[in-house]
Amino acid sequence: MNQPLGDISPEEFTDAAEYLTEWLSSYLSKESFPEPVLSQMEPGHILSQQPSNPPESGTTPRQILEEFESELSCGLTHWNSPRFFAYFSISASGPGVLADFLSAGLNQQAMLWRTSPVATELEQVTLDWLRQAMGLPTPFSGVIYDTASVSTLHALATAREMTLPDVRMRGQAGRQLVVYCSEHTHSSIDKAVLMLGLGWDNLRKIPCDENLSMDPAKLAEQIKLDREAGLHPCAVVATIGTTSTAAVDPVAAVADVCDAENVWLHVDAAYGGSASLVEECRPLFSGWERADSIVINPHKWMFTPFDLSVLYLRDMDKLKQAFSLTPEYLRNEEQGRVMNLMDTGVQLGRRFRSLKLWMIFRCFGLKGIRERISYHLDLARYFGRMIEESHDFELALPVSMSLVCFRWKGHSDDEQLELMQRVNQSGRFFISHTKIKDQMVLRCAIGHIRTRYTDLDLFMNELKSLVDSPVEASPCS
Ligand SMILES: *Cc1c(COP(=O)(O)O)cnc(C)c1O
């Protein structure tokens, strides 16, 4: 007889889990920095190394995990390294990882309250804690999705429902809806407009001032023009903490325009939202309590393993109005008395994502979370000062939140990119770039839970030694 049917044995599970726990525990500890931070794997390496046919017979989980380490870890880019400074630096903290492990074992699917009362109610509890922590008033309540892109898609679909209440039956029926954002808004807005079938011709990118913030007077002007042309202004997206430079739109002034024009205001605080937990950053958020919807990603700067995005709505019923639809086989007697998460979006099934955020709140406490975010703000200012004081580098913009945008002084755009490539090839750090005001700029994004002052000292030394060595033509260009 071959292996008995059914799952692996409890002994095999325990043996593999112990191996995995030890491996992760060392991976997640301060002493062992995973390097290279940016994977240096050649494209196609794993494709060619793995067998092209499915394995006919099984292997023990322990052996498979060992093979993962020896054969596949070269394909890891280490997002969980304290020296990952590219894009936005995120972290899977210990409590979050443990919660995800538990969640996988429990396999909760929270489409209806009854299919997981705990996932449904813990999501409400945790998101209300977060709402209070961010200083948002009570009418706001939240729902969890995977990413900000999906949160924003749901926000704009709700705005469409409010603008055209018969859209569910008639579709747009020739009516042209218009969405407004700034030149520096995240591409997820373009994608949401695409998904909703609104057409990019109806997405207005409002010009920004020298701080890369949306000009509210130009917004008001454009909405007027569109109304006069018989179009239907549908939603404005303001950003607190843009992806490129952590710029902040003047949300209060934008909210004035939205109020006057009766247009939905969606605030994208996917990255920046976490800074609202810290008192010193609150002024940046002034006016966001007047938004109709707000997105914030705890998986960015709140130590939550990817993925977990939260959409807050001032009126949750509007989201339900846009999305609820109950087929007969899902009707149940508690309907009307409970939250059924399937009513809040496109997907029917839901993962138990709130468990990791709940675990993080419980383990660090709100105080601990706030202290960690404050510390990152200090680290960013510290690195910003080092840049200003060095004669090789200069700040491209004032430090905003935990993001430092800098340039190699007196060097061309190509040389900025060459320097970045050298940093990333060295394997000790990983940074990324952006283009602002027609200039290439390097970004150092801080936000990993284990980053310390010494990591930034070492990074500065690395930059200095790389600019001191002669710059060769980059091998990849
Ligand atoms: C990262 C980011 C997004 C997209 O986040 P996903 O969760 O990956 O979809 C949207 N907006 C802003 C401002 C961001 O920084």
Structure description:
This protein is α/β, with parallel strands linked by helices and 477 residues long. The protein is built from 15 helices and 11 strands. It has helices at residues 10-27, 45-49, 61-72, 94-106, 117-133, 148-163, 167-170, 187-195, 216-228, 251-261, 298-301, 316-323, 354-389, 413-426, 453-468, and strands at residues 141-145, 177-182, 203-206, 232-239, 264-268, 293-296, 309-313, 393-395, 403-408, 432-436, 439-445. The strands form 2 sheets. Strands 1-7-6-5-4-2-3 form a 7-stranded mixed sheet, sandwiched between helices. A 4-stranded antiparallel sheet has the order 8-9-11-10. Helix 10 (251-261) links the parallel strand 4 (232-239) and strand 5. Helix 4 (94-106) runs antiparallel to helix 13 (354-389), helix 5 (117-133) runs parallel beside helix 13 (354-389) and helix 13 (354-389) packs across helix 15 (453-468). The longest helix has 36 residues, at 354-389. Bound molecules: pyridoxal-5'-phosphate. Pyridoxal-5'-phosphate binds next to helix 6.
Concise account of the structure shown:
By secondary structure, the chain is of the alpha/beta class.
What is the topology?
Elements: H1 10-27, H2 45-49, H3 61-72, H4 94-106, H5 117-133, E1 141-145, H6 148-163, H7 167-170, E2 177-182, H8 187-195, E3 203-206, H9 216-228, E4 232-239, H10 251-261, E5 264-268, E6 293-296, H11 298-301, E7 309-313, H12 316-323, H13 354-389, E8 393-395, E9 403-408, H14 413-426, E10 432-436, E11 439-445, H15 453-468
Parallel strand pairs: 2-3, 2-4, 4-5, 5-6
Antiparallel strand pairs: 1-7, 6-7, 8-9, 9-11, 10-11
